[in-house]
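tool_call: predict_structure(chain=1)
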Amino acid sequence: MDSDKQSKIKRVQIPSPEWDREFNAVKRAMRLTAELNRLSFDDAEKIREIFCDLTGQKVDGSFYLIPPFYTANGREIRVGRKVSINQCCTIYDMGGVEIADEVMIGPNVNIITTSHPMEPSKRRAYIEGKPIVIERNVWIATGATILGGVTIGENSVVGAGTVVTKDVPPNSFMAGNPARVIRSFGEKKRN
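tool_result:
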């Protein structure tokens, strides 16, 4: 992981005042997502309204989300224009999730910024959040899992069921567990 990404890692000790704040944010997110998840696809305006409350940010009128949707916080999610999130998507955003314009997220996708230490003695001591960046015009297909610290490059496709543990180059198709580049596209980056 490069030094810029390394500097953005968020570590929360358990227990701590910061953990209490995170835990309260989770309770708040659970209330808001329960309200959102009672809505149908036809309630697009109300869904956007609740999503704005959840993230603390205004979303573009072109944003749409098909419930149900799950998050552990919501305040660290940023979405661009023409973003679509299909049903049963989960975003654990403590480390921050940036979703650029024209991103399509398929059903049952997991975007998880948080993890626990591998060492058994430290596993319950803290949670670590690493940012996820999804660049413009990305398509994440059904059932994919994106793990913390990853950037998915512009115009890329993440195949169904893929587990992404490292950066996805722009203009590429990645698939598998763990993900690997299957092929690259000839398109150049737009200005």
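agent: The longest strand covers residues 180-184. Proceeding to next step.
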